[in-house]
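I am writing to request your help with a piece of structural work I have in hand. The matter concerns a single protein, recorded as an amino acid sequence and a row of backbone structure tokens. Could you please explain, in whatever detail you think fit, how the structure tokens follow from the sequence? Thank you for your consideration; the sequence and its tokens are set out here:
>
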Amino acid sequence: MTHDQAKALAKTFEMALLAQTANREPVVADAGSLNRFDSSALAVLLACRRQAQALGRAFYVRGLPPRLRQLAGLYGVAELIPDAP
């Protein structure tokens, strides 16, 4: 996920969440297929987290690549994108 794709992916996630407003289950983003990304991937994940929390839902990430986890640590946001239980 790069800058060119980020806006569309964030919008898709937002629409999917809004379609499930009655659902109170935690939101789990699957990042396992991310093999090409930049810091925009973190921005999208953080936007997803904000949207989930605005709807009263917990947010987790499954399969976050180690390099993206390191990038999140460098930016100081690693604790905001917790691994799925």
